[in-house]
TrEMBL record:
This is D-galactose/methyl-galactoside binding periplasmic protein MglB. CDD domains: PBP1_GGBP. It comes from Moraxella macacae 0408225. The ABC transporter complex is composed of one ATP-binding protein (MglA), two transmembrane proteins (MglC) and a solute-binding protein (MglB). GO terms for molecular function: carbohydrate binding; metal ion binding. GO terms for cellular component: outer membrane-bounded periplasmic space.
């Protein structure tokens, strides 16, 4: 794993790997995380292979290093990338490399739909009564396929969904690296600018950033609808407390289980999808997101 210090989704997945290691005595599972340091992760992967690992499940620290990792290990061990895509072309270059993730397009669509549904029920959100959703977007990591898809499809769904679509206008958009503190700092900056008075809705590619936005707004006594993705426990509590507005469930448990089962199949030399309920296309498994109540 890239890191488990501050990302609840990664923390949940890490716990799933630990639990599965105990529940499957036929597997020898080596688990570690890299404190968001690619050099540390590179060393950990080398050490795991030296200890006899026949397959690797990798949540990349730096998605731009996907090619280097694939070039190094392709054909030597099975490769399963988790949550962070090493790059479609890089993945396609190695027949024994796979990617397991949630369906980020679906996540964006569900977030956009949630905005539309709640916007219709809250006419007071349209502060200037122009019939346009003025929004600020907190994005994850640059060049991250999930970031790109969540942003594109959230905005596109708000604009174009049949019968529900509403014109939108971007006021602010920047990267907060899926991190609560960075999102809070970004909101602290935005709220000092005159254009922030136009913002009617805040969108975030994940709950960690949405919670950072909530913290910043609370400090300033500003009330705005904030939408996240992942349905982490802290986000659910924030929604129940009337702070965050809504989120979308990102099924870390089944993503982690599927990536581990896929790696175990590769290590054992059996059919990659054996025991996995999800379909695979072009060596990619996408676990569905789900609406939250």
């Amino acid at each position: 794993m890239s890191s488990i210090e501050s990302n609840p989704f990664f923390q949940g997945a890490y716990k799933t790997y630990e639990t599965e290691a105990k529940n499957q005595p036929n597997l020898t599972l080596l688990i570690d995380h890299a404190n968001n340091d690619q050099a540390v992760q590179d060393k950990q992967l080398d050490e795991m292979v030296a200890k006899g690992a026949k397959a690797l499940v990798i949540n990349l620290v730096d998605v731009n290093q996907g090619k280097a990792v694939i070039d190094k290990y392709c054909g030597k061990v099975g490769l399963v990338f988790f949550n962070r895509n090493p790059g479609d072309k890089n993945l396609a270059s190695c027949s024994t490399a796979y990617f397991v993730d949630g369906d980020a397009t679906q996540a964006g669509v569900l977030q956009g739909l949630k905005v539309l549904e709640t916007w219709k029920n809250n006419p007071s959100w349209d502060k200037n009564k122009d019939g346009v959703i003025q929004f600020a977007m907190l994005e994850g990591i640059p060049n991250h396929t999930g970031t790109i898809a969540r942003t594109k499809w959230s905005i596109g769904t708000m604009q174009n969904y049949p019968s529900l679509g509403i014109p939108v206008e971007k006021v602010f958009q920047d990267y907060a690296m899926f991190n609560t503190t960075k999102a809070q700092e970004l909101l602290d900056t935005w709220t000092k600018l005159p254009d922030f008075s136009k913002v009617e809705v805040i969108l975030a590619n994940n709950d960690s950033m949405a919670l950072g936005a909530v913290l910043s707004l609370k400090e300033k006594g500003i009330k705005l609808p904030v939408f996240g993705i992942d349905a982490t426990p802290d986000a659910v509590k924030s929604i129940q407390a009337g702070e965050m507005t809504a989120t979308v469930l990102n099924d870390f448990d089944n993503q982690a289980k599927s990536s581990l089962r896929l790696a175990a199949n590769l290590a054992a030399g059996v059919t990659p999808l054996q025991g996995i309920e999800y379909k695979m296309e072009h060596n990619v498994i996408q676990v569905p997101y789900q609406e939250t109540k």
